[in-house]
Design a protein that fits this description.
The complex is a heterodimer of chains A (409) and B (281). By secondary structure, chain A is mostly helical. Helices cover 72% and strands 0% of the residues of chain A. Classes of the chains: A mainly alpha (409), B alpha+beta (281).
Chain lengths: 409, 281
């Protein structure tokens, strides 16, 4: 009887299960570790990280790139549903947009930690340099985040709290009418920045293993392939935890198959990229760079095991072989594997590329030493913050927002 | 029946039809094709103007220069003895961290096995990768070709550091509290220390150049107007001056000596020329 009284008050007295409370406690611990690390970095400065002048980008940039790639399910699935008109996949859109939102905001948090002057984070919006890929990336990500929020607004206003404010709810639903238009805009902008994140490296002619036109293609393809799979994995995991149907399984199976094909396409491009850059069209600079990486770093292992086997082959098999495709556990495992592949690829590009020392002397003997970097504990701490943040966003949304209603407006 | 339901839904939800999308896509493609045609291509009203500009300026290497000066340097590798005085004078004058100098001196060998010393300030490229990549234009070209930074604008993303082909950039990982060991023996700081969280670089001592021009001095000839590294060199391996002035010593040196520029194949158009050792590189 007391519960009914609470329900009448319409406050947040929802029946939290002990398991959920433990989960919240776990998230709290993650966030506490993360916030402590972040504040320490803000107070002391970036010198407490292991980044140096020779390896000025590290774990944070890797995670930043990865979380944007893993949030790519939002634009890919929106495009499939609203532009290519495959309405069957509609039920996953809300979740995809949520995962995209979590990914993009996580990237923002990481980036804010990484720049030396977080107080000046707004400078790219005011001081434009249209020649800079990074400027283009910043603008695109900002605009796309706004698109995601607008796409998600109708879901937020359907939450119970907005029973009191019908006007806001009405406005949110009004925004929903623009979804197809936003999907077009989102597709264009996402294709642009998902690619130009690769171009960030691809245009740097001074770095032998970065400078190649395939870089943007590989970034955008891997994101299109892995992003939707991550959304599927979230759907299955939420289903296991809440014990409620989230998205129809046939929908999830179509998407995992799409991801599998996407990964194979990515693998094909990657194969020819490797063949062209390291074999058929190799230049002395590139050969030396790869020889150095091979001799002095675990790069070959990371490439073959991390990027190729874990990142492409294993998930492609788990997504495409019919027996595995129907198995939720296999799909989740595949998505996890593809995720690891993405992170390792972004790490190999960023840190591997910086490990190769610059050689600018015209002489023959001088060579800068190969780069050395392994993230400091405090850098991992900040990553704990990012993970904790993303999990919290998803948890709260699953708990309080009508993510899986098939209601149409 | 579910198929029917979906069809009705479709009518409500999609206000943009597929043909609308195609129209938008076609318009975008058209715009993308039209833009270069109209600006740099054959339809451009600026085409004639650009051709004239090209004819008027046959010399390469003044890419970013719009004024009457283009500051450059000639470094004679045959004369350099590797004493590192330039490094110390630079670190004192610009108050650079002693363990992270802007201006470096490195021993190297020619293909014949003879030792020589390569010293490297910022090369002030006319096609500077660092200027291109900066998302906020904190690094920019002055009209005299110098690549300088606005430390109040830099956000510390370190993309310029990653993009520089010559390792010429330094990041302030922490707030400076170090004592400069080269002050006052090698000179006195003429500029402020840079704050935590920004990238910094060699400026060819712009503070001296700008003041000198106001006072009618000639950078490269008058000591007060010349970069600290050039003044201190005991063997006069470094020469500084205006690359646009045919009578300047830098232009004379380039005209009468074989010269090379570092990583010229990247097309950076550096403003620093090196005279190789006599026996060759």
């Amino acid at each position: 009887m007391s519960t009914s009284a609470f329900q009448q008050k319409r406050s947040f007295q929802l029946p939290f299960s002990p398991a959920f409370l433990i989960w919240l406690g776990f998230l709290g611990v993650l966030l506490a570790i993360g916030v402590y690390s972040a504040i320490t970095v803000f107070i002391k400065g970036l010198y407490i990280t292991n980044m140096t002048d020779s390896v000025p980008w590290g774990l944070w940039i890797t995670v930043d790139l990865s979380s944007i790639a893993l949030g790519a399910g939002a634009f890919t699935l929106s495009a499939i549903v609203y532009i290519f008109g495959i309405k069957r996949l509609q039920p996953i859109i809300r979740l995809a947009v949520l995962v995209g939102f979590a990914g993009y905001t996580s990237a923002m948090v990481t980036l804010l930690m990484d720049i030396g002057r977080p107080d000046r984070f707004w400078h790219p919006w005011v001081f434009w340099n249209v020649h800079s890929v990074l400027w283009e990336v910043t603008m695109c990500i900002t605009v796309y985040l706004m698109i995601l929020v607008t796409e998600f607004a109708p879901v937020i206003v359907d939450a119970k709290i907005f029973d009191k404010w019908p006007r806001i709810r009405k406005f949110g639903h009004f925004l929903h009418r623009f979804t197809p238009f936003l999907a077009v805009l989102g597709l264009l902008i996402s294709l642009l920045h998902q690619s130009s994140l690769g171009a960030t490296y691809g245009v740097i002619k001074s770095r032998p293993i970065w400078f190649k036109p395939s870089m943007p293609i590989m970034f955008v393809l891997s994101a299109i392939a892995a992003g939707p799979a991550v959304t599927v994995a979230v759907a299955y995991v939420v289903e296991w935890i809440t014990r409620k149907r989230t998205v129809p399984h046939d929908v999830l199976q179509i998407i995992t198959r799409f991801s599998g094909v996407g990964l194979l396409a990515y693998g094909y491009i990657k194969f020819w990229d490797m063949a062209a850059v390291t074999y058929y069209g190799r230049t002395p600079g590139v050969s030396t760079a790869f020889a150095l990486l091979q001799q002095q770093t675990p790069y070959p292992f990371a490439f073959w095991v991390g990027e190729v086997i874990l990142g492409i082959l294993a998930p492609a098999i788990l997504f495409l072989v019919p027996r595995f495709n129907k198995n939720p556990a296999a799909a989740v495992l595949g998505a996890l594997s593809a995720m690891i592949g993405i992170v390792i690829h972004r790490w190999d590009v960023t840190v591997g590329g910086l490990f190769v020392p610059l050689s600018y002397s015209p002489g023959t003997a001088f060579e800068l030493p190969i780069g050395k970097y392994f993230p400091a504990l405090i850098e991992w701490g900040v990553i704990v913050l990012v993970i904790g943040y993303a999990l919290t966003v998803v948890t709260l949304a699953v708990k309080f927002l009508p993510l899986f209603e098939r209601k149409e407006h | 029946m579910t198929a029917q339901k979906k069809r009705t839904k479709k009518k409500v939800v999609v206000e943009l039809t597929r043909s609308d999308v195609l129209k938008v896509a076609a318009a975008t493609v058209g715009a993308v094709i039209a833009a270069p045609l109209l600006t740099t291509g054959p339809l451009s009203p600026f085409g004639q103007f650009k051709q004239e500009q090209l004819e008027g300026e046959p010399q390469v290497g003044h890419g970013a220069v719009t004024g009457e000066y283009h500051w450059g340097m000639v470094i004679n590798l045959d004369q350099c003895i590797g004493c590192e005085y330039c490094q110390r004078a630079c670190s004192a004058t610009n108050d650079v961290r002693a363990d992270d100098p802007w201006n470096v001196v490195i021993p190297d060998k020619t293909s014949g096995g003879a030792t020589f010393f390569l010293s490297r300030p910022c090369l002030h490229c006319q096609n500077a990768p660092c200027v291109e990549v900066c998302p906020v234009k904190a690094t920019y070209h002055r009209e005299d070709g110098l690549v300088v930074m606005d430390y109040d604008r830099c956000i510390g993303c370190r993309y310029c550091q990653v993009a520089c082909p010559y390792d010429a950039r330094r990041f302030n990982w922490e707030a400076r509290s170090d004592e400069n060991p080269y002050v006052p023996a090698w000179g006195d700081p003429e500029v402020e220390r840079r704050p935590r969280g920004v990238v910094e670089k060699c400026t060819f001592c712009i503070q001296r150049i700008d003041k000198a021009l106001e006072n009618g001095l000639t950078p490269g000839e008058d000591r007060d107007a010349t970069p600290a590294c050039v003044n201190i060199c005991p063997v006069r391996a470094r020469t500084f001056g205006n690359l646009k002035d045919e009578n300047s010593r830098v232009v004379q040196l380039i005209a009468t000596n074989p010269t090379l520029r570092l990583r010229d194949e990247l097309g950076t158009e550096a403003s620093v020329y090196y005279i190789p050792p006599k026996e060759g590189i």
